[in-house]
Amino acid sequence: MLFPVLSLVFLAGAIVLGFVRKMNVGIVSLALAPILILTGGLKINLFFSGYPTKLFLTLLGTMLLFALLQENKTLELLSRKIVALVGKNTFLIPIIVYLTSYLLSAAGPGAISVQAVMILFGVSLAVQMNTSPLLLAAMALLGAVGGTTSPIALTGIIIKDLLDVKSIAGNPATVWIGVTLANFVCALVVYIFFKGYKLRSDMVLKLSDTEKFSKKQLLCLAGLITLAVTVVGFNQDVGIMSFMIAGALIILGAVNETAAVKMIPWSVLILICGINVLMTVTTQLGGIKLLSDVLAKMMNSFTAPFIMSMTGGVMSWFSSANGVVLPTLVPAVPGIVENIGGSTGVIVLVTSITAGATVAGISPMSTGGSLTLAAYSQEKKINEKKQQKLFIQLFALSAAQVLIVSLVALLGLYGIL
Fold first, then answer.
1. How many Cβ atoms are within 10 Å of 374's Cβ, its own excluded?
2. Helix 266-284, helix 25-39: angle, nearest 10
């Protein structure tokens, strides 16, 4: 019992220390993992074998490709053209922002790249339209995190890797469908609550106001289409295809390699890989089994999806959904299902966790909320009092979204899928 408890203490300590000291949890995890290995009497080679090399290269490939597309404004121009199509029907803009974010995210880059572009675009658009930034920022984030569980996007790749590594049976595409459903419910509530249907503006973005795609941007669009076709249609590896397409774009001179490499969120890669190493050690020492046993005692087959969804959301307020929440909770799911019995399946709980963890991203302590707060503060030059008010509003919105997807889980809608 000592080592399982100790391993969970180290895991929780890494997350708490990273949050309190504003440190990268991945770096903290890499520092604590060797100590835990030696204390637990394991072989030090576990430190290296626990490093997720395939996942690292897959994420690096996709991040590189979409950093290239982001750097030369291909994604931004594509978004502007889509929004311009609504003309005077400005009440459609939140819907277009949501769908654009969703489709771009599902096509490959996932939430990290897309939300950076779409939230900044949405907040800027909200300022120009003299409306609340919360509506468009929330729709941009929800679209981005909703699409990120697709088989070729960041979270979808991580979920598939976790299921494969832990030999968990189930179709990752079911998680994508379930998260999309819960995400759509959230978006609908946000749209109605903020009265998006009444949105009007004197500022109308026309298609003629947007510049044409340059030859370099057209090459990038061709690369994006190629990625989607080869991965979805021909089941090719998304990481390998991303490297190949990125290399072709660089050789053709369509992108700025140096600038794009600087845009890659290296800290996210370190976080994800570092926590994976510590998770491997924790699993070896029996920590995950202990965690699943404890959680199982707190729930039954009816309440399990709700509790796991809320747990994923709360954890995501203070840490990364991809780097911390999913690698921590998903491996515990099989043990929970075995202990609680009933009809609740593994994929239902994985979907519940993912839905809760992803929609929490509008919290001001997370990337999406931070971007919203920073962008609006810069655009409107708001004072500290208004910044604090927006901070509270963002956190309240995040809590409401986590509650909504958790209620969807409680109603058993994921089980129907």
1. 15
2. 20
> Does residue 197 register a pLDDT over 60?
yes
Task: Give residue-wise pLDDT tens across range 11-35.
Answer: 889 888 877 787 888 899 999 999 9
Domain residue ranges in the chain: 1-49+276-284
Report yes or no: 238 and 108 within 8 Å, Cβ to Cβ.
yes
User: Which residues are CB-contacts of 376 (< 8 A; sequence separation ≥ 6)?
Assistant: 123, 126, 127, 133, 137, 382, 390
For the segment 148-173, the average pLDDT, to the nearest whole number, is 80
Alpha helices in 194-298 (DSSP H): 215-228, 234, 238-251, 257-263, 266-284, 287-297
pLDDT at residue 233 is higher than 70:
no
CB 160 within 8 A of CB 168: no
Q: Which of 192, 301, 268 is nearest to 24 (CA)?
A: 268
Question: Which tokens in the block code for residue 374?
Answer: 């920073």
From CA 119, how far away is CA 111, in angstroms rounded?
11
Residue 194's nearest CA partner among 124, 262, 93 is 93
Contacts of 87 (CB under 8 A, 6+ apart): 204, 206
The pTM for the full model equals 0.71
Half-sphere exposure of 271 (CA within 13 A, CB side): 20
Q: What does the pLDDT look like over 309-355, one tens digit per residue?
A: 998 888 787 667 887 788 888 888 888 888 777 667 888 999 999 99
Among 353, 352, 370, CA closest to 361? 370
